[in-house]
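Input (structure):
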């Protein structure tokens, strides 16, 4: 079950920035940022305001894509806290496991490239 314990510092690595590996590879589409937020925090659940904060998006943008991600079974509603619906990564969805493995493989590749000093000035791997 997801919990509501969240890091306090907005610069915490749990927040998705343009440097996030999934955003770097797949682009900065809001769905990518929202999904990266959940994959990076699989034990947590979030309300829309928190998703927006962690994803560096506006609440209206988050609302625009929530139903699509729920429709694909990637995220799910967990509980209500006051008037806020909470959402979490659907850990039963095999696609999420594949996304998490994809992220891990990208980070491993990036680490290998960094050790070999094969990164450009924006920390992207060189061919």
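Output (sequence):
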């Amino acid at each position: 079950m997801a919990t509501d314990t969240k890091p306090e510092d907005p610069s915490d690595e749990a927040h998705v920035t343009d440097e996030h590996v999934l955003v770097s590879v797949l682009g900065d589409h809001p769905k990518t940022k929202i999904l990266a937020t959940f994959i990076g925090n699989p034990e947590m659940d979030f309300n829309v305001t928190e998703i927006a904060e962690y994803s560096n998006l506006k609440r209206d943008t988050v609302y625009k894509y929530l139903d699509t991600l729920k429709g694909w079974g990637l995220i799910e509603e967990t509980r209500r806290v006051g008037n806020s619906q909470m959402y979490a990564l659907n850990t039963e969805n095999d696609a999420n496991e594949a996304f998490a493995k994809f992220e891990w493989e990208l980070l491993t590749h990036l680490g290998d490239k960094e050790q070999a000093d094969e990164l450009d000035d924006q920390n992207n791997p060189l061919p």
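Notes: The CA atoms of residues 63 and 91 lie 21 Å apart. The chain has one domain: 21-115.
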